[in-house]
Write a structure and sequence with these properties.
With 69 residues, this protein is mainly alpha-helical. It is built from 3 helices and no strands. The protein has helices spanning 2-16, 18-28, 35-67. It is elongated. The model has no long low-confidence stretch (mean pLDDT 90).
């Protein structure tokens, strides 16, 4: 099943985000100090922080709405 998903998504990823494939290949080759790899790691960390902050805000807002009832 995973192989079929890979075969379906790989051409789309190659067309739309070729830099991500290059970065992933460099990461797997052990080139952790590569600027492209570092950029993608920083973007991933920022996305994780923003997602966590958003979920916390939703949780706090929801608690206040439920407590008012």
């Amino acid at each position: 099943m995973t192989w079929i998903l890979y075969l379906a998504l790989e051409p789309i990823v190659r067309r739309r985000w070729p830099d991500s494939i290059i970065s992933w290949s460099r990461l797997l080759a052990g080139r952790l100090r590569d600027p492209l790899v570092g950029r993608d790691i920083l973007i991933g960390c920022l996305a994780g922080v923003l997602l966590a902050a958003g979920l916390m805000a939703i949780h706090l807002f929801w608690d206040r709405v439920v407590d008012r009832r």
